[in-house]
UniProtKB/TrEMBL annotation:
Protein name listed in UniProt: Unannotated protein
Native source species: freshwater metagenome
Presence of keyword ATP-binding: yes
Gene3D superfamilies: 3.30.300.30, N-terminal domain of ligase-like
Domain AMP-dependent synthetase/ligase, chain residue ranges per copy: 59-393
Length: 532
């Protein structure tokens, strides 16, 4: 594979790509059919959409103020001119820090438009976590929401230029943008120029930076979104994941802009706020995690959700009880999906009548997915193995030896254990490190969690293995109870019996601990390692 001539003057990202022979195999035919060699994804998402559909439709809104595509393009081009005037050149890394809102969308698009590399960070990250990102990405510029400056100010290893936005100071980015020209010639980037660094959460050690090209950004819209969400310009997208979480970047920026729809960007999107926002803004496409769907269930009867057309769940496994409860309460079939930061977005899913409750779905068009053994032989239907995938996107870590762990034999190895059936459906079993070996039995933690969640008293649960002298490990469950339930020894026994009655008895939790809440990342993923 030969890389196209880069537009980057700062060659840091291309210099730190893994050698091509360490890349996964890509669906070159699919990519060649969809994208030219020269491509700027920010231009395609905005200028290209305006060219196809016009600029009068709503592009972004915070629920109070809305901007049309023309108005968004005006702000993006002005911001691009400001950044260029301040010295940002193609290939520079520009860090973004702030909550989901229209101005975060403007900054993301402007950075990519000028050929720089965007590094979007979770707004809840602390100084020490930000320092790790700055060190790995060698960040030179930062655009920071004025309400999130404090932690950023303590970052000791950043020597570049910080611009604050959203405040009232004369040198605030928004003030500079208002005075800048709204005519900007975008940088003629290569389709395989790096445009973004997506960081893993870093909860278990040094974070990894997944490097994604301009073509990758469009590929997730033209594969998963086009085939599963099937959007139109009349759609309104909303959800809870932040832009720094690639699930959120796709769902709330890339997808709506690619198809001329509107993105409702909420700074706070807790389940109650999200439900009300759906009603008030007539949201049609909803994206959030399984835990949020479950948390919204008690209140769905209090709001009008008739505008919803599709509800997408990702970020963690979707338990079948949650799927069935949402279907019963709303009439909507949750669309499950598995993706990865390394793949940029979802690569297994299903919609409509093709949904099989309890299954993640089938391979998204453009992707090849399999379940294999340690030697990459396909497992027969019904037998668990390692989930592997290849397609138009794939893993390229920035200067990280863990590239060898994720990419093997041309496959992206996700770290998930799955079963496939005769019809091409994939069924999640566990993360590879969520398998509990107890008295010789392999027990998948999510299966036990799903069984517990079917009990009326259980609001949330997380299951881990706990060392045990007699059995090697035992199954332990941490349980958050519904408000109407009361913790007691009797309830422990009741839950244990309930699990024994629904799955193999040897899988039941021998210990149950009631807790107020479960530890989670900023994206809502359970942090089982903290419970261990």
């Amino acid at each position: 594979m030969t890389l196209t001539q880069s537009a980057h003057l700062d060659t840091f990202t291309r210099d730190n790509l893994p050698p091509v022979d360490q890349w996964p195999s890509f669906n070159e035919k699919w990519l060649a059919e969809h994208y030219p060699d020269r491509l700027n994804c920010a231009v395609e998402l905005l200028d290209g959409t305006i060219s196809r559909l016009g600029g009068a439709g709503c592009a972004v809104t915070d629920g109070e103020e809305s901007w049309t595509y023309d108005e968004l393009a005006d702000r993006v081009q002005r911001t691009a001119n400001v950044l260029v005037a301040l010295g940002v050149v193609p290939g520079n890394r520009v860090l973004l820090r702030g909550p989901n809102n229209p101005w975060l969308a403007v900054t993301w698009l402007a950075v990519v438009r000028i050929g720089a590399v965007v590094v979007t960070t979770m707004p809840l990250l602390r100084t020490g976590e930000l320092e790790k990102i700055v060190d790995i990405a060698q960040v030179q510029f930062a655009l920071v929401d004025h309400r999130f400056v404090e932690e950023w100010s303590g970052v000791a290893n950043f020597a570049g230029l910080t611009l604050v936005f959203g405040g009232a100071d004369p040198d605030d980015l928004e003030q500079l943008v208002a005075e800048a020209s709204n005519v900007h010639m975008p940088v003629d980037t290569a389709a395989d120029d790096v445009c973004m660094l997506a960081f893993t959460s870093g909860t278990t050690g040094k974070p990894k930076a997944a490097m994604h090209f301009h073509r990758d950004v469009l590929a997730i819209a033209d594969s998963f979104c086009a085939s599963i969400v099937q959007p139109t310009a009349a759609d309104i997208f909303a959800g809870s994941p932040p832009f720094a979480f690639t699930f959120g970047l796709g769902a709330l920026l890339i997808f709506p802009l690619r198809f001329g729809a509107c993105a409702l960007l909420l700074e706070s999107a807790s389940p109650p706020i999200l439900l009300r926002a759906v009603e008030l803004n007539r949201v049609t496409c909803l994206f959030t995690a399984p835990t949020a769907y479950r948390a919204m269930l008690p209140s769905v009867g209090e709001v009008d959700l008739s505008s919803l057309r599709v509800c997408i769940s990702a970020g963690e496994t979707l338990p079948e009880p949650t799927w069935r409860a949402w279907k019963e309460a709303t009439g909507q079939s949750l669309i499950d999906g598995i993706g990865a930061t390394e793949m940029l977005h979802v690569f297994i899913s299903a919609r409509g009548d093709e949904i099989v409750p309890g299954s993640t779905g089938k391979a998204v068009p453009g992707y090849i997915v399999d379940v294999v053994d340690d030697d990459f032989n396909s497992m027969p239907p019904g037998q668990p193995g390692r989930l592997v995938v290849k397609g138009p996107t794939g893993c390229r870590y920035l200067n990280d030896e863990r590239q060898f762990d994720y990419v093997q034999g041309g496959w992206n190895v996700t770290g998930d254990v799955y079963i496939k059936d005769e019809n091409g459906y994939f069924f999640y079993q566990a993360r590879a490190d969520d398998i509990i070996l107890s008295s010789g039995y392999n027990i998948a933690a999510p299966e036990v969690e799903s069984a517990l969640l079917a009990h009326v008293a259980v609001q949330e649960t997380a299951v881990v293995g706990q060392p045990d002298e007699a059995r090697g490990m035992i199954v332990k469950a941490f349980v958050v109870l519904n408000p109407a339930a009361t913790a007691s020894d009797g309830l422990v026994h009741e839950l244990q019996a309930f699990v024994k009655a629904s799955i193999a008895p040897y899988k039941y939790p021998r210990e149950i601990e009631f807790v107020i809440e479960l530890p989670k990342t900023a994206t809502g993923k359970l942090q089982r390692f903290k419970l261990r």
